[in-house]
Amino acid sequence: MRISELRMLDIVNIKDGRRLGPIKDLDLDLERGVVKGIIVPGASRSWVFFGGNRTEDLAIPWDRVKKIGVDVILVDAQGLPEFNSEPEHH
Predict the structure, then answer these.
(1) Which residues are within 8 A (CB) of 13 and not within 5 positions of it... i.e. 6 or more apart?
(2) Residue 13 contacts residue 78 (beta carbons within 8 Å)
(3) What is the pTM of this model?
(4) From its phi and psi, is residue 18 left (phi > 0), alpha (psi between -120 and 50) or beta?
(5) CA distances, 21 to each of 12, 25, 28, 68, 88 (Å)
(6) DSSP assignment of 9-66
(7) CB–CB of 75/69 below 8 Å?
(8) What is the torsion angle, in degrees rounded to the nearest 10, for the CA atoms of residue 67, residue 10, residue 71 and residue 28?
(9) In 10 A of CB 60, how many CB atoms?
(10) Torsion of Cα atoms, 15 then 21 then 27 then 33, to 10°
(11) Contact 37, 59 (CB under 8 A)
(12) Rounded to an integer, what distance in angstroms lies between the CA atom of residue 68 and that of residue 6?
């Protein structure tokens, strides 16, 4: 599979079924020749064109990638600090 093909796939968190978006970039360790992780856009991308609601891109470590399918990449983002946006129940 080529990087251009990976970028066409949606990232889905297997713990809650949430769509995290497409791969924006890869985090590579060139010295060791391995993929360290995948980068996805931050959750709130609206209004960026107008200068508001900017969010940081989110990194998912490669060991959290569970399955690369023909349509989606399944990841386990549970417990990653940047994905702790689940609503609290009181």
Answers:
(1) 20, 75, 76, 77, 78, 83
(2) yes
(3) 0.73
(4) beta
(5) 8, 12, 20, 14, 23
(6) SEEEETTT--EEEE--EEEEETTTTEEEEEEE--S--TTGGGT-S----EEEEGGGEE
(7) no
(8) -50
(9) 23
(10) 80
(11) yes
(12) 9
| Paired strand residues for 34 | 29
- pLDDT (tens digit per residue) in 5-34: 888 899 999 998 989 889 999 999 999 999
Which tokens sit at 21?
Answer: 């978006």
Average pLDDT score, the chain: 81
